[in-house]
Each structure stands twice: as C-alpha cells, then as structure tokens.
Prior knowledge:
By secondary structure, chain A is α+β, with helices and mostly antiparallel strands. Chain A contains five helices and twelve strands. Chain A starts with a helix and ends with a helix.
Amino acid sequence: MNSSIREHILKALDAGIRFDGRKLDELRKVTVEKNVSKNAEGSARVLIGDTEILAGVKTAVEQPYPDSPEEGNLMVNAELLPLSNSRFEPGPPSEEAIEVARIIDRGIREANTIDRNKLCLTPKEEVWSVMIDVLTINAHGNLIDASAFASIVALLNAKLPKREDGVVNYSELTKESIPLSKNIPITVTVYKIGKHLIVDPLPEEEDVADARLTAAVLEDGSVVAMQKGGEQPITADEILAMASLAQTKSKELRKLL
Amino acid sequence: MAYEKRLDGRKADEMRKISAKVGVIKEANGSAMFKIGDTVAYAAVYGPRNFHPKFLQNPEKGVLRCKYNMMPFSGAGDRVRPGGNRRSKEISMVIESSLASVLNLEDFPNAVVDVFIELSQTDAGTRCAGICAASMALADAGFAMKDLVASVSVGKVDGKVLVDLDYKEESYDGEVADIPIAVIPRSGKLTLLQMDGRVTKDELKKALELGKKACSQIYDVQKKALKSKFSGDKNE
Lengths: 257, 236
C-alpha cells in the first residue's frame, strides 16, 4: 500500500509539489507561545502545521554526576503521548520517543547552550538539575524539529525558583534565567524521498522516506550534532546537501525564538 | 478561626472561571480541553478499536479504558515523574466508572474505547476537570450517550461549605474536606464521589446541593462548546 502512496508522492515531487501543495523546502506555519504552564519554571507551545507540542522546564537541587562534580545536570525527556496519535501506546517511552529526546539533548549539550558550571552550588554535593520534558499534543509529522524547538523556547524563558536555607520554593520564581551561552541550537531534519530532499514532512511523507538527517545548527551556521535515520543509505554528497538545507531552514525558525 | 472570606474572594457557591473547547486534537476521534481556574485538562478519545491482548476483550460489551496523567511540569513543586503512580492509577479507574454508565458500551462488544486525559497545568480539581473534558471528547467523537457528565469538587474549609476548591484552599491550614463529585445532569445522579476529610450529614447535604448546582452550570458550558463546533463557529 505504501508503494502506491510513495509513487504518488514521488510523482508530485518530480513536479516540485508536496503532498499538501507546499514547495519541497517549505515549512508549514509555525506558531510559538511562551509560558503556557504556570507551575513550570519555563514552558512553551509550538505548532508546526497540525503538529502541536508542549515543552516544560523543571529544576531541582541534586547531586552532580561523579564525572562532572562542578556542573549542573541536564535531562531531556520526550513523550509521544497516546493522546496525540492512534499509533502511540501507553507505557514506557518507545524507541522513537527516546531518539527524539536524545537528539534534543545532544543539540543542547554539544552546543554548550547551558553554562553548566554556573549551575554548581557546592562542588560534588549540590548542583541545579535542569529537566526538560517535551510532549506531543497532536502528532502530525515532524515531531523531532517541533519538539526540539519547543524545548529551546521553554529553556530560554525559564526562571530559576527561589531557594531559601537550602530548600527550593517552587511557588516563587526569581528573575534569574537559567545561565545560557549564546549558542542556541535550532534542529532541522531533512528527509530524502527518491532523489528529492524535503523539510517538515507530513506523516505520509515520513512513512515513505528513504532516509533523514537531523542537524542542530547554531546561529553562525555551524552544526553541533547530527543524526541519520531511516533504512536507506545516503552518499556523502547527499549528507552535505541535507546539512546545508538544514542550515538554511534553521534561520527561518531562529527568527521565531 | 472561621474561613469567612475565600482566599481569592469568590462566593461559597462560585466556581473559578471556566472555558471549554472541543476538537482540539485533530488526530483523535474526539477531543476536548476543559479549563477551570488554572487547571487545564486535555482529553482525547480513540476508538472503538481492536482490543489487544485478546483475553481482555469482553464479548458482551466494549471496554472503556481511561488514562489520567499529569504532565511532568504541570504540578506545583517538584517535577512529576512520568509513567504514572498509584494516585494516577486510582484516578484513572474512578474516571472510568464515572463515565461508563452514560455510554452504550453494549454496542461495541470486544472493542476498547480509549480515553487519554492529560493535565498540562494543575491547581486542584484535576480529576473533575479530566472528567468534564473526557465526556465532551466522547460526545465530540460521536458516541450515542445518555448524557454528558459534569464534575466539580466541593468541600469544606474551616466549617464553610464551598465549591471548586483551589490548591491554596485544599492545603489551607485548618480543617479541610475535599469531595470530588461527578453528576449526570439530566437525572441528577452521581457517578463519582470521593471524600478526604470529615463532614457532618448536614454539611454533606449542603455540599452535594452546591455541587449539583455547579455541575448544571458546567453542563451549560460543555453543551455550548459542543454546539459551537457543530454550528460551524470555528472561533470558539
């Protein structure tokens, strides 16, 4: 069944048209809403077309990891909620959800977005942990990019809670943001279908794609993390073409921060 | 010390601001958002669909399966660990039994109807908001229902009977009783009743009266939201 949909999609792509009439490198409408959940230290809602994602940041004072005794902890968790699509089932995170979370985590970690040294309170004993949770409300394609973007918006808007006598008071946020560097990664995934490269796929396009390449791009265009997905192999030239399309599209998303 | 004036200035029988919308999750067969004060519940319905594993199927009637979940960043205080806990399991179960009787589950033998409830922001009354959203989502999915279900928490703070306690009232430093109820508005019958705290018979009577009155107001909001979707008014 997929093969006939694939043929249909390919034929349209040959004519330069997408399944929903877009151009190959055209994003659906992107909407960003900040501070959408008042108990979170930071939160965001991102819509890309019909895909809707919520991201929230929580913090806690915890022990640092033994291999980074003077750095705060970062944790990213993604959930593909069964509420958001009939394909998703309740239970522990699927491989797909874990991949989304790890791609987001790698982008933020490798860009050194968070100045983790500044999150240290007492070396080896107490540091701030920053926990980003990203959840799907309506899953209709391009979950990686939408989730990564929502995570970044939530992180940029998060404020640390008050801490008095060693106790965190979550009901009062300070004016202090999470210490961030200027390196804010924007994650863009490019899909290959036949000889064509597209961005922001619909589920139908994801299902028939040969391969994908996700790149986390900084403002100066440098790429800090990548992930190849999909079963078909790609050439080095294709990787370069996909990465440069990701660079171009990341600029459009960055304007919406 | 009597609790005369409510912390946020509401009257005893006054609920927080309510808004509701259906069709908020396009992938679902039916969906709704219900907001009361700062508590926000989403509900999505999938099914009736195949029920696996097969031994769970009921050849007599369909199975209603509800899942209540708080988003990790939704609560006051620490992050809520994902994956559920004893509390969310119990709430899921009481939500199932508060909704099952308005559905004609005999129409779907062997099938399952899944209702997923997610709280994106919480300020008490989450199971009630979840039930309100879920019953609207079931109606949005096109189920033939005997009625909607409206739900609210009633309670008592320092001797005063109130509707729709918020988090500050629930954690008030004094005697607090919390009684979440769900009502089938047309029959006036209750499908959910829980209670944490201590009340007299008279107080319970008064609380149930206030609760039923509040539920009929919620019912109006639910019907209005459903009608506005199907009358083509896309803005509300």
